[in-house]
Amino acid sequence: MLLAATVVLGACASGAALWWVVEQERARIGETALTAQAERDALRRAKLALEEERLALARRVAILERARQVEAEAYARVDQQMTDLQDQILALKEEVTFYRGIVSEEAGNGDVRIQRFVVEREGTPQDYRFRLVLTRGMRSDKVVTGAVSLSVDGDRDGERVRLGLEELRPFPMAPLEYRFKHFQRLEGRLRLPERFVPKRVVVQVDGSSEGTKPVRETFQWPSMKS
DSSP code of 114? Predict the structure, then answer.
């Protein structure tokens, strides 16, 4: 009887010890789970804070980039305005020189003069535009008329060639004629043949009005940058 009681008491003691161990482990696991949950919450909050900071930085970068673009556009506009202003000043200086040439004593005899002749590339390496300015003295009020002929001297396949205006125009045009009292601007297009290397331009101004003297001048073909 005593032995049975001893066995029962031993079993109860072992069961109580086992229960205590289980409860202690359960409590430890619960504490670990709470700690893990707290860490997860902290990490989640840190992630949200970092995301907000990233978005704020992205907005700041966008604002700075836009400001940089606006500043660059402003500088580009100023540069363009400066370039336009310089071009206008140059054009005004050229106009002043032009009109001084008209009213000069040299131009006061009433004869037709070639005040300016320029050739500029337009589009392809074969296409050009020429501008011719004819003048007379301001003291002359009589209208003068006439025609202008233009030819280009150059080399083609090792041979010297002279091409007339009718061979250089890209499409049929009316004759190059003038009619003015004091000055007139004439212009037109030229298309050079393939393998033709221009050297000089010969401009001949013939008058149809009585007393108008012919004028002939030769101009070097300007070097053109590619």
Answer: E
